Amino acid sequence: MSYQPLLLALFALTLNASVIGTSKPADSITAERIAQLPAAERAAWTAYLESSQQQMQADRAALAAERTPNASIPALPKEGRAASSIPLDRPTAWYSSAQAQHIADVVVSFQTPAGGWSKNLDMSGDLRTRGQSYAPDNLNKHPSPGDFDTPRDPAWNYVGTLDNDATTTELIFLARVAEAAPAAPAAAYRASFLKGIHYLLSAQFPNGGWPQVWPLEGGYHDAITYNDNAVTHAAELMTAVASGVQPYSFVPAAQRREASLSANRALDCILNTQVVVNGRRTAWAQQHDALILQPVAGRNYEPASLSSGESADLLRYLMRIPNPSPKVIASVEAGVAWLRSVAIEGQVWTGTRGDPAGRHLEPHPGASPLWARFYSITTNKPVFGDRDKTIHDDVADISLERRNGYAWFSSAPQQALDAYSVWRKQH
């Protein structure tokens, strides 16, 4: 995608200035915005938005029907990292255990009427009770004025999401337990799985991306979300389902064909959102506007910018595609060149969260390469956001709380360069 000049002012630099810009909130998907699209695109997006709105109403009505007027509402479910309580790395035999089946029962109980799951649920505890929320307390624990993360309805937040590996993790787990379980529970797990695949198909944008939250919640949650590998995890699951291999051989042929088309659309979206600057492909943002594909801000301190971690993950995904097309190969080559061009040499990101001076960069000759989390689209220089929405060109200028509480630098993109060394010999 060619980046539009409208947002370039966000990163207009003032030399030696502490604040170089201010983040603006991402736009929601609305009927008014859809009406501005080319005529050929409007029908699909209008149908998508209407489907989301109808599903939101159905989900809310289902929960309301479980609750008795004037009766107490069950406590919110226990919080926990769902991916930790839904292990995908156990030996095959473990998935036939009573413990695995209990977790699968809990997973099924928390599936939303739409077919997805919330995030940060502890799936190792009790089953969801009638009238209990589908989601734990996912509200921002450090709200700021004008917080981009403030939900429209605090009581209805992240009800169905791909954030924090939610939904795809549950689906993979259900398929593995169903393969090992007795007939009766296996049938229930497979039914839940198929409902979840329908959820992913319904949530997928007409252009092949996925939002962070569906039914749509507004703001950056409506954007094409590469953060937490939301798009690539969904696409990889669709590819596996389409193949019909175990443990997905039970999926009907028609749904496998839908899954194959879904994975292809996701690949098109990835290729179409690679940011083009001065005629050259570069990298990707954490999230892109679903309608116009431009990078958009996430949380207050996550500016619209190129993101090294998400770009590295997308490159690794592209390099796993068998028999890549010339367009995929060109995308990989460009993305790798960008990663190499923005690597930070001879420095380490050091300090502890309790250090009064805060985390900081220090010179360290011979250190392994580092990458900043975010880079300006116009300058390819690192940028850093703060809770007040200000954007800085020096990590030392942001608040101590944000400097210590966010992964501003990482060596993880090196994994993509290592994978490229092997991939390039084959392509």
Q: How much is the radius of gyration in Å? A: 22 Å
Strands of the widest sheet, in order across it, are 1-12-11
The residue fraction in helices comes out at 25-40%
Order of H and E elements: EHHHHHHEHHEEEEHHEEEEEEHEH
Task: Choose one word for the global shape.
Answer: globular
Task: Pick out the low-confidence regions.
Answer: 3-17
By CATH, the topology of the largest domain is Glycosyltransferase
- What is the percentage of strand-forming residues? 5-15%
Number of helices: 12
Mean pLDDT: 94
Q: How many strands? A: 13
Q: What is the class of the largest domain in the CATH system?
A: Mainly Alpha
- Seen as an oligomer or otherwise, the chain set is single chain
The CATH architecture name of the largest domain reads Alpha/alpha barrel
Q: Major β-sheet, in short?
A: 3 strands, antiparallel
How many domains comprise the coordinates?
A: 2
First-last Cα distance: 24 Å
Decide which structural class fits the backbone: mainly alpha
Short key terms for the protein model shown above:
427 residues, mainly alpha, Glycosyltransferase, two-stranded antiparallel sheet, 12 helices, disordered N terminus
Characterise the protein shown here.
The chain is mainly alpha-helical. It contains twelve helices and 13 strands.
Question: Would you kindly provide a brief summary of this structure?
Answer:
The chain is mostly helical and 427 residues long. 38% of the residues lie in helices and 7% in strands.
